[in-house]
Design brief:
Layout (H helix, E strand, L loop, with lengths): L1 H5 L11 H10 L11 E9 L4 H16 L3 E10 L4 E8 L2 H11 L3 H11 L3 E11 L14 E9 L4 H16 L5 E10 L4 E8 L2 H12 L2 H11 L2 E11 L7
Antiparallel strand pairs: 1-3, 1-4, 2-3, 2-8, 4-6, 5-7, 5-8, 6-7
Helix pairs in contact: 3-5, 6-8
Length: 250
């Protein structure tokens, strides 16, 4: 029996002894744990087709009212994989910080009057997702400005990183290590669809992406790693995006 093999039970209380309770918890761990509270909010706005240019112009003019309150990682216009969309990533140190930011913005006259009141009628839908950087990833800025980004999203089977984490990491690293694209960061969803992982890549251009993807598909190491990871995959999607002029990541 697992209980008999790993721990001693008190005859009076029946509780697991302190010396071995950590071992039991480790067996049921769902994978590497986050060591800090920093998270990244993914926000996707769907724009009315006739208002796309106007929305981007307004945001360019007024985004400073928003970035005065918290850090913007990047802001992109979606070119392929979703029409009339913008995608942006905001960094927070904690949920309490985000709550404070949202409260402050709700009382900011210029933000409400000069941006929100004008932007909201231009949108059809908004969506957000809370993500963490996976423990083995860090934000890596592109080597230069002026490229294009791909947000590759993977809906993995239920079970979490304990089930598919190693295989997914191997498949991503098999592409990133030889230079088949510049890996900006890998994110794991916390709120929103669960068991979803996002890989944000940078390329010099859409044609550069097409060329290196072709090379990667001819690399036996990449093919083997992807085959292992795909056994845990339910679905995947991607967006090709161009950074806006005011985006910190360009």
């Amino acid at each position: 029996m697992l209980r008999n093999a790993l721990c001693r039970l008190s005859s009076k209380t029946g509780r697991v002894c302190a010396a071995t309770s950590g071992v039991v918890r480790a067996l049921f761990s769902t994978g590497p744990q986050q060591k800090h509270g920093t998270f990244y909010e993914f926000r996707t706005y769907f724009i009315r087709p006739d208002q796309n240019s106007a929305f981007l112009k307004l945001t360019n003019e007024k985004i400073h009212l928003r970035t005065a309150h918290s850090e913007l990682l990047g802001y992109w216009s979606v070119e392929y994989g979703g029409l009339n969309q913008v995608f942006h990533i905001w960094k927070y140190d904690s949920f309490s910080q985000r709550a404070g930011v949202r409260a402050a913005l709700s009382q900011e006259p210029k933000w409400l009057g000069e941006y929100i009141s004008k932007a909201i009628p231009m949108l059809t839908t908004q969506d957000n997702e809370v993500t963490y950087l996976v423990p083995w990833s860090q934000i890596q800025s592109p080597p230069k400005e002026g490229g294009t980004y791909e947000l590759a999203s993977f809906q993995m089977k239920p079970g979490g990183p304990a089930v598919w984490g190693e295989a997914f990491q191997a498949s991503v690293c098999a592409r990133a290590t030889p230079g088949y694209g510049h890996l900006v960061g890998v994110f794991h969803s916390e709120f929103g669809p669960l068991n979803r992982v996002h890989a944000l890549w940078w390329y010099e251009s859409p044609d550069h992406r097409a060329a290196v993807r072709h090379e990667a598909h001819e690399d036996a190491r990449v093919v083997a790693a992807v085959r292992e990871s795909v056994s845990h995959l339910q679905s995947q999607s991607s967006k090709l995006m161009f950074p806006c002029s005011f985006s910190p990541l360009k």
